[in-house]
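Deliverable D5.2: sample structural annotation.
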Amino acid sequence: MKKIHLAIGVAILFTSCKCNLTDKSYSVFIDNKSEFVISSYLALGGKGETAYPDTSLLFERKCVGYATKPGSRADQALPTFTYEEWFAMLPQDTLSIFIFNQEVLNNYSWEQIQQDYNILQRYDLSLEDFYRLSDKNDNPVITYPPTEAMRNMKMYPPYSQ
């Protein structure tokens, strides 16, 4: 039943006359506080892609992007929809964000990475988590490794100091 509601919601959003274009740009920032290059994937769902509660690596390797150097931040713009609209389209009102070591992506086959579930971190965030992690411009900032402020948010592996 939830899938039917999701399909209807997506159809309405894409067939709306205004296409829900907004004056505001919506972005998610990935903040790399590690000592190596990371890449990330936002599991927004879609045909043949991963969406929570399914956290398997069903998406294609080419979908993983936004390499972020140590000490820098990558901006991942969300096309035309607000955060609320994206979360409303998700099967469980939870967005998974996968963090990968870029060196692993460069040196192993995608099949091997999928089989070994070779991720650094997976955040399973609610819309409320997005708001808690937002900067002064109201854009969520997702930090790897996770910060103390993220300790009670759902993630795998679990938060540790």
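Annotation notes: The two ends are 40 Å apart (CA to CA). DSSP finds five helices and eight strands in the chain.
The annotation will be released with the project's public dataset once the embargo ends.
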